[in-house]
Specification:
Layout (H helix, E strand, L loop, with lengths): L6 H9 L2 H10 L8 H15 L3 H11 L4 E3 L5 E3 L3 H22 L6 H16 L12 H14 L5 H12 L11 H23 L2 H6 L6 H18 L4 H15 L13
Antiparallel strand pairs: 1-2
Length: 267
């Protein structure tokens, strides 16, 4: 369940990629329903790992992107299956998993653990059946390429600017909870909006916060550190079975309004 916590930061970095930002802006209802992409996509993406037919589902996801292309607001051509573009979306998921371990897990990874975990993310990516050319060969190479993209290629696309605005100031017109009605939505905002903002900005790489003037004070850092510490210590008392059931429940919840053949974890 903890591996979902840096997810908003990962999604923001996806939208900062010119090709992904343009595709989301032009081929989805992002500006009307920014969180719909999360509700629609996350269970499908997790299914490529967890479902028995994960390989077939991964290729289905790839095929959904065949028609996503065009020209962005700066007159640059893009396509969702361009190798570096498609890899960047997955790279943010790889970063997200490592970030969750670094910040929210009480255990630490050895060098051997890191290489094994990175190799697993590469095996995951291979399921999509796309070009492996952009994929770095090891974890150190991945980190170097990831930071280089953050420093040189990410932009404040219109989609990223909108997501940042929502994260900083909230929005009374954006639905956080896909199901449950107005009462659940109000309760979700009250409980989750401020911690979500703290987690989103706190998990972002420092270079991304600095490049795009995302406000972050020493007090914010202290609050984020306290939240991460509470999470690490709290999860020590959560049985693995309960943790796994919470994850399955969350995937069901956010996938409640997706297509009929969405992945539904077994009870």
């Amino acid at each position: 369940m903890r591996s979902l916590l840096p997810g908003a930061a990962a999604g923001l970095m996806q939208l900062m990629h010119p090709g992904i930002g343009a595709g989301v802006s032009e081929h989805s209802a992002f500006f009307d329903a920014p969180f719909d992409r999360i509700h629609r996509s996350v269970p499908q993406i997790w299914a490529t790992i967890l479902a028995p037919d994960g390989r077939e589902r991964a290729r289905d996801i790839r095929d959904l992107h065949r028609t996503i292309g065009g020209v962005d607001e700066r007159n640059r051509r893009y396509h969702a299956l361009e190798p570096e573009t498609f890899w960047w979306a997955h790279a943010t998921f790889t970063w997200e998993i490592f970030k969750s371990v670094e910040v929210f897990h009480p255990e630490t990874l050895t060098a051997e653990d890191r290489e094994r975990l990175y190799a697993e993310t590469v095996a995951w990516y291979s399921r999509y059946g796309v070009s492996m050319r952009p994929v770095p060969p090891d974890h150190a190479s991945f980190r170097a390429k990831f930071w280089r993209v953050c420093a040189e290629q990410l932009e404040l696309t219109p989609a990223a600017a909108r997501a940042l605005e929502i994260a900083r100031y909230g929005s009374g017109t954006v639905t956080l909870m896909p199901v449950g009605g107005a009462m659940v939505e109000r309760a979700g905002r009250l409980v989750a909006e401020r911690p979500l903002r703290l987690i989103t900005f706190g998990c972002l790489p420092t270079i991304v916060r600095e490049r795009f003037d995302i406000p972050w004070t020493p007090l914010d850092q202290a609050r984020f550190g306290a939240l991460a510490l509470a999470n690490r210590q709290g999860y020590r008392m959560v049985p693995n079975g309960l943790n796994h059931r919470a994850l399955r429940g969350m995937l069901r919840y956010i996938g409640a309004q997706t297509r009929e053949d969405r992945y539904q974890p077994a009870a």
